Amino acid sequence: MAKQIQAIRGMNDILPTQSPLWQKLEAVLRDTVAAYGYSEIRTPIVESTDLFKRSIGEVTDIVEKEMYTFADRNGDLLTLRPEGTASTVRAGNEHGLLYNQEQRLWYMGPMFRHERPQKGRYRQFHQFGVEVYGIGSADVDAEVLMMSARLWQKLGITEHVKLELNTLGDPAERANYRDALIAFLEQFKEQLDEDSQRRMYTNPLRVLDTKNPDVQALLADAPELMDYLGDESKAHFSHLCELLDAVGIQYTVNPRLVRGLDYYNRTVFEWVTDSLGAQGTVLAGGRYDGLVGQLGGKDTPAVGFAMGLERIVLMLETLALTEDVAGAVDIYVTAMGDSCRVEAIKIAQTLRDVPGLKVMSHCGGGNFKKQMKRADKSGAKLAIVIGENELANNQVALKYLREDKEQELVARDSLATYIAELI
Ligand code: ATP
Ligand code: MG
User: Fold this and answer.
1) Tens-digit pLDDT profile for residues 214-244
2) Which of 42, 324, 332, 349 lies most in the core, judged by the most C-beta atoms within 10 Å?
């Protein structure tokens, strides 16, 4: 036998048994954003490499080591998108969507990062995200957080997620803090791990969210960014906290929360869970008022988040919140004997006019038992059987596959109405 070709490591198939749960999740996401008046934007999966370098930042994990970059046939450097914000800003600028306007946008789709695959961390994964442009006030920071809280509620996982919140201030405030932080880190330079030593001068704030417990311990007395904020940044943050208090969203202020992308300012947040082990962040985001200008547009305030769909699916599976996901089919139509095949196929086709009814037919023969086995395997609630007798009397036989009920004979004329009431 020929050798089988395998999927790329870290890139998963979503199989037919898994897709109902994905579809349910996607439907919840779509309904939720619709309730807030957000519009969908779809951007290409491939962009110029420069877009991500300029937005995410040269000294970030993503740009330093995680991007799928390749030269196309013209020699242009292209990258499979590792996240959605850069592309959204690029498209917004390109099509004049952001210039003196307010926009509330959402997107959903695959992202690509060359990371070490493990549970909850893949090389192709899916993100759902929202991005709001043109509104500087913390009201909209609160809005996207309220939206995320509503998502947890609809998915039934409110109990299992916690909100962590921080503020990074504005670039000037952060620059002052950065100097103080570098001075602090220099005292321990020899004790820092390799990653932290490398980041100490290039991106010192990233040292704060190190996962290395030894380095974390050294940071106990590190200066806190909160002490370097100006009045406006402080007011923005306290307004956000007030709003969250007012709508009953609980949060913890985590001064170490810095996020791995360079474009954030002021508000940053993560929703985390402890039901997934190490990969605990399920949704993350913040404000990025500088990015639109940095990518060539007019300065425009912006805030958004991205949610990792695989991690949510894993949570729903782990917490066994998957049982009410609908099956693929309601009715299975089958024919007894070749002479009934055409009629059976026609009946199936007519039944599909009933709104929402899912009908599968297979008239490929086999004895009654075999056909009923197929019908049962389809997951349908009802089987419709057409044999010579039924055909002659303009009837069909209706069999209940999941209930202990007698078979019924139903006139073909009234079949659709009968079924519509039954299902
Ligand atoms: P992490 O700390 O887990 O590496 P990140 O800071 O790189 O996350 P973001 O770039 O903010 O994550 O992406 C937002 C969300 O997308 C994450 O919280 C997570 O749920 C999901 N995500 C990010 N990278 C992956 C991946 N490689 N596989 C699956 N989901 C991912
Ligand atoms: Mg990452």
Assistant:
1) 888 888 889 999 899 999 999 999 999 999 9
2) 332
